[in-house]
Amino acid sequence: MKKNDGMKKEKPAKKHPIRDAVRDAKAQIKNKPVVSTVYFLLRLSVIAVMVLQIFNGNYENVFLCIMTLALFLLPTLVEHKLNIALPNTLQIIILLFIYAAEILGEIRSFYTVFLGWDTMLHTLNGFLCAAIGFSIVDMCNRSQKFSLSLSPFYMAIAAFCFSMTIGVLWEFFECGMDVLFLTDMQKDMVVHNFSTVLLDPTGGNNPVAIKNITDVIVVSDGVEIPLGVGGYVDIGILDTMKDLFVNFVGAVVFSVIGYFYVKSRGKGKFAKRFIPQVNTGADVSDARDASDTETK
Question: What is the CB-side half-sphere exposure of residue 269 using CA atoms within 13 A?
Answer without folding.
Answer: 0
